[in-house]
Amino acid sequence: MIKCVDDSVVVCAPTALNQQNFVASIWHDDWKLSLPGSQRKVVAFDNLSVTVGYTGSITARVPLVKGSVFATILIETPAVVGLTTIHAITSIDTSRGSGVSIVQLNNGTTWFVYCESGAAAQQSGMSGLTFADSVHGAVRLALVNNGDQAIKALSSAKDTVPIGGEVSIQTSEDSADFSINWKVRDGDNSDALLMSALPHHQHALTNAQWVDSAGEFWSSKGNMRMILGSHWNWREEIEPLEFTGQTPLTETHKDNLLTLVKADANALPADTGALPPDPYFFGKALARAARIALIADEVGDIGSRDLALQRAIAWLEPWLAGTNSNYLIYDTEWSGYCTQAGLTDPGADFGQGRYNDHHFHYGYFVYAAAVISKLNPDWSKSRLDALDLFVRDYCNPSAEDSAFPFMRHFDFFEGHSWAAGLFAFADSRNQESTSEAINSYYASYLYALATGRDDIANYVRAVLQLEARATRTYWHIGDITSDIYPDVYSNNKAIVGILWSSKIDFATFFGANPEFIYGIQFMPYVPATALILKKAWIEAIWSKYLLAVADGAQSDPWREIIDLAYAVVGKEDTLARISRITSHDDGNSASNSYYWVATAPIE
Predict the structure, then answer these.
(1) For 351, left (φ over 0), alpha (ψ -120 to 50), or beta?
(2) Does 243 fall in a domain?
(3) pLDDT in tens, 344-371
């Protein structure tokens, strides 16, 4: 971990604080390189890196590249610099080659320190390291995790510096090929590049040159494995996904849904004043109406379909025209689409004006837009530019679009979205509801399909598949892998409530009830939910955790959200359980619950 502040760059090899309800990375200033009189600013960035530039008495650049094994400071003008540590230096070995020092600290760690210009390191006091000559070029530090074998691997890679990277996706009907191409400095040997891969990479990369002799690095997401080379490649198999569920409805299911969908459609309010003014809860209500319309269409109830569709269009029109009370504004500072309340008050609308949760909020709008576009394409065509704005805000696949950023929330190295916007948190970025992230990309996929943009649909479907893999790897304990998190955490739970950049948390932002912590990873129930709720995992955790969570839930809506997960294991049992439910989540309905159970795949 690297922290860039004015006057210095601080490097930390974090240690773990393992607790029953969280695992946190503990920061300590293992090394500080002082740049006195210098100030910092971002000078370059891409999808995998940010470069911080320092100007002042010392000019330097710090490439912050995802997966880097070394912390690198590029000194651009020859200068006298030194390193300090909060620990005591117990030994320095400078016999490993020009500019190389192996430094042992009294906390038990060993560090590989390299000065590219060849200046020899020497100890200064108990906790300082100075270089005999002025320094220019790279100063690099890496943790030594496997003795001499690690030192050998680091020595081979010390002169190849990553400065950025590119992600490319090639899609076909049933698969997507992903590539990460790391950029190195001009003249560096890209074949010697040593990087580190997260667990989801380790399960997916093909023809990887693993360098296990270099050891592994701990992270709050699991150990990172060393890999050689500047090209990473893997293929994601694309699961079938459409507007409708994977399992066809039986005639009995259709008959039961006819009754439910009629009641749900008739209950939708005609008065838009009865709807929530904020984009999250309004979006959920809007998507609920769209789901009712789509289910009614599938079972042949044209009256209920048209009524639900009429309600959804009437509710959405004021948001498109800017006549609702909490109207939307284009923010020229950060190139985004925000509510008036959010831009006025940083805490309003869940921090929406500071770009928190845009994919959650607008994912519901886009889902409704997709359904309307499918069922009433003439209306959609007349509003296409306005509807597109919601998609472009959070799921913009074009780096050439000057009005909105490329894929605002999605992190192509981590493999998932970050929900946090411009707020600074102690544990850095975070995402709580993976299922709402899944819904947002599913919605964008359907919208692209319904509006005839198949190339965009294929791209978003590939991103959706990545989000699903990361969800099952990092939020679902024991799904794809069971050995990422320490036993003290994983032995008594099967979920991560909030995943931070440097922490995992059995919690939510809105309460500590177990049904909240599990349920926020399951809702809303749409056909894409099948990408993350797999029979083997739900079957394994139902009796151990979920049954008690459902039975102990303090309200029907949250009890139903947990119960519905069991549909991928047993449909009839799930229908029996939800028959006791008398009220639903504000984004759900009786017909949608029944439809999910009826169409959920049982592998």
Answers:
(1) left
(2) no
(3) 999 999 999 999 999 999 999 999 999 9
